[in-house]
Design goal:
Layout lengths: L1 H26 L5 H33 L13 H21 L9 H10 L6 H16 L7 H18 L4 H20 L2 H13 L4 H22 L18 H28 L5 H18 L8 H8 L5 H20 L7 H21 L7 H18 L2 H12 L5 H18 L5 H8 L26 E5 L2 E2 H8 L5 E5 L5 E6 H42 L1 H10 L34 H11 L1 E2 L7 E8 L4 H11 L3 E5 L9 E6 H10 L1
Helix pairs in contact: 2-5, 2-6, 2-7, 2-9, 3-11, 5-6, 6-7, 7-8, 7-9, 8-9, 8-16, 10-13, 10-15, 10-17, 10-18, 11-13, 12-14, 13-14, 14-15, 15-16, 15-17, 16-17, 19-20, 19-22, 20-21, 20-22
Length: 672
């Protein structure tokens, strides 16, 4: 019986191994849509389970550990608890992180983005464990954050765990990690569509069918499991039914402008906080966040925790204008400082709450001025949430989807579009701020070059990135023309053939060094020949003088004088072009030469091939109106790493406009 069982297990094991190996080979292909979609479903299920477990642990500790009457009801705590709980809790969390190895401290969305794009989606399990425990603890002690940050990390880990357990190729592991992210957002907010778009816009940063369908299915699974456990209600109990009118457009524009400025300020505070606390020990950073939270929470308890209950109060217009303004400013400041100090909690929920309070403040003001009915306060609350999320994360489509799903009202789409677009433009174009996670990575010196949904090679013209400090010369050329091209110290020197076609480029430094070497050597040789010619002319003069005095000696001198031969690229100067010094002409020493004239002659007569200079790069011409995608194609076809931009559609004699290297092209695509 034992032998039969062993043979059965061995047979099943071999069959399973062959199946997994075929699966790995299939998933290495870009069109393994069915297989990766089914695995994405499993990844979404695992991610949703972890997110649900995280939420149950947090809410259970809040209710049964802290004795709150409900999740997030920190307002019910005594004032001294609101002060001491964040301070002492953050100190404990900071000391725990201080004892951890440095690599295990990396958690959150920034960590997910880096691992996704640099390490093939591999998420270490140690970091995931730290994220689960630290996330629960940080939110339990009332720090201003959200569940979605830990949820995204845990969701990405779920996909990574599944992919690496099966030994799948990195392309599939990345897709499964993206599925986990979508499922986590969907389970956290009960917004499956926003989960899909968030994963594609913020983490995957790519819209392809191969990633879209698995992510959709995973997000659906996340929402399904969350609604099974917590019910079908969305995270915020906000219901609106609003019909937009034309007179509201100026109000919506004003709301977009205000929130765009606040989003830019939020990101600026995060960047400044990171820069100022860069060298602080981790326990000091965490404790500082706890102190700030405790002091502000002592007076404004609404800023403690995630703040979903505060959002419901704002939407119901149950807070005064003064309270709304205080909550908006304190939540905005506290959340940005907390994020900048690197606490292991989410960053989206505080952004949503801040936007909700700002929008609700405007709505309450209009309501008190009898401009809108009471129910429309909730409408402006939701618009503020979407605008703040879109502008801060630079994820407008995810924000729009979140507004639609949170309100279940299609009438909110148009006004949400207006506020989200305006706020996003203000933050990005007026204040020059990129998305929050890109800003965090850049401030931490971990800029992640990768794909971007904002721009690609088809959206960027060659003329926007070329180096315009250029000069050009023909090949071959003389030293005078080459020196003239170097006079203005161009970044690049373009070499063209007789047909005006670019053959290559040289940077200024090697071109200058090559010119100096060639010119000095040629001038030295020319000077030596000139001196030799002057000596021979002097010898001839002496011989003529001697012949007048002694004809026989003159004949011998003429017979034995060596022939005047020349070498090199410059013809011999005759006695007519050389100025000799009369004072030493008798002994041939101190021959006077017009060095300025000689140098001019060298520059004009010496010709050389610039393509033989060390540092020469082959190049090809490209139309300056091309896009970067077209330029990449030209590089591949011509097999060059440098392109010379000019207006090729007109005259063939059009001047050079600039130079672009492959590195400049790739950087422009990835960084924009």
């Amino acid at each position: 019986m034992t032998a039969l069982l062993a043979r059965t297990q061995d047979w099943l094991g071999r069959r399973l191994n062959r199946f997994i190996e075929r699966l790995r080979l299939r998933l290495a292909q870009p069109d393994a849509l069915l297989q990766v979609t089914l695995l994405g479903l499993i990844s979404g299920l695992l991610a949703a389970l972890l997110v649900v477990a995280f939420r149950l642990a947090l809410e259970g500790l809040q209710v049964y550990g802290l004795g709150l009457p409900g999740a997030e009801r920190y307002e019910s705590l005594p004032a001294e608890w609101r002060l001491l709980l964040p301070i002492l809790g953050a100190l404990v969390l900071g000391l725990a992180f201080h004892l951890l190895p440095f690599g295990m401290r990396n958690v959150g969305v920034g960590h997910v983005i880096i691992r996704f794009h640099r390490f093939g989606g591999y998420m270490p399990w140690q970091n995931a464990v730290v994220q689960f425990v630290a996330g629960v603890w940080g939110l339990l002690i009332g720090l201003s954050g959200g569940r979605e940050g830990p949820g995204i990390h845990l969701g990405a880990f779920s996909g990574s765990l599944l992919g690496h357990s099966l030994g799948l190729p990195n392309n599939s592991v990345r897709t499964l990690s993206g599925c986990g992210v979508a499922a986590a957002i969907s389970a956290a907010f009960n917004t499956p569509l926003a989960g899909v778009i968030f994963a594609l816009e913020v983490v995957i940063k790519q819209y392809t069918l191969a990633s879209f369908l698995p992510v959709i299915l995973a997000s659906s699974m996340g929402a399904l499991l969350a609604t099974t456990v917590f019910g079908p209600e969305t995270l915020f109990t906000i219901e609106i039914h609003h019909q937009m009118s034309f007179w509201e457009v100026p109000t919506l524009l004003a709301l977009g402008l205000i929130i765009g400025a606040m989003a830019a300020g939020y990101i600026q505070i995060v960047e400044s906080t990171i820069a100022r606390s860069w060298n602080w020990p981790v326990w000091a950073r965490f404790t500082a966040a706890g102190v700030a939270t405790g002091i502000i929470g002592f007076w404004v308890p609404e800023v403690l925790g995630i703040g979903h209950d505060t959002t419901d109060l704002v939407a119901a217009a149950e807070l005064t204008l003064g309270a709304l303004l205080i909550i908006a400013v304190t939540k905005w400041l506290l959340a940005s400082v907390t994020v900048g100090l690197g606490l292991p909690i989410g960053t989206i929920a505080p952004v949503l709450v801040t936007g909700a309070v700002v929008g609700g403040t405007l709505g309450s003001l209009l309501y008190r001025l009898d401009q809108i009915p009471l129910n429309d306060v909730a409408f402006y609350t939701v618009l503020g949430m979407g605008a703040m999320m879109g502008a801060t994360l630079q994820a407008p489509l995810a924000a729009l989807a979140a507004v639609l799903e949170l309100t279940s009202d299609t009438g909110a789409i148009l006004p949400a579009m207006i506020t989200i677009v305006v706020s996003g433009l203000v933050s990005r174009m007026v204040f020059g701020k990129s998305g929050l996670y890109d800003a965090i990575l850049r401030a931490n010196d971990q800029q992640m070059p990768g794909p971007s949904l904002w721009f690609n090679g088809d959206n960027i013209g060659v003329s926007s990135i070329i180096e315009r400090r250029v000069a050009e010369v023909s090949c071959p050329c003389n030293l005078a023309r080459f020196e003239q091209a170097l006079e203005e110290k161009p970044a690049w020197l373009v070499i063209r053939d007789e047909n005006r076609q670019a053959t290559g480029v040289i940077r200024y430094a090697p071109a200058r060094a090559a010119f100096d070497q060639i010119f000095n050597q040629a001038l030295f040789d020319a000077q030596a020949r000139a001196e030799q010619a002057a000596r021979e002319a002097d010898a001839d003069a002496q011989a003529n003088q001697a012949s007048a005095e002694n004809p026989d000696a003159a004949e011998d001198a003429t017979t034995h004088r060596p022939a005047n031969t020349a070498e090199g690229g410059i013809e011999h100067e005759t006695a007519d072009t050389i100025e000799t010094g009369d004072e030493d002409a008798g002994n041939g020493i101190g021959i006077g030469i017009d060095m300025e004239a000689l140098a001019h002659q060298v520059r004009e007569e010496v010709r050389f091939d610039p393509t033989e200079i060390s540092g020469f790069y082959r190049a090809a011409d490209v139309e300056v109106g091309y896009t970067l995608t077209q330029a990449q194609r030209v590089m591949r076809e011509e097999d060059v790493g440098v392109l010379v931009a000019r207006r090729m559609l007109g005259s063939a004699q059009a001047r050079t406009l600039g130079v672009m290297t492959a590195a400049m092209l790739e950087q422009a695509i990835t960084e924009r």
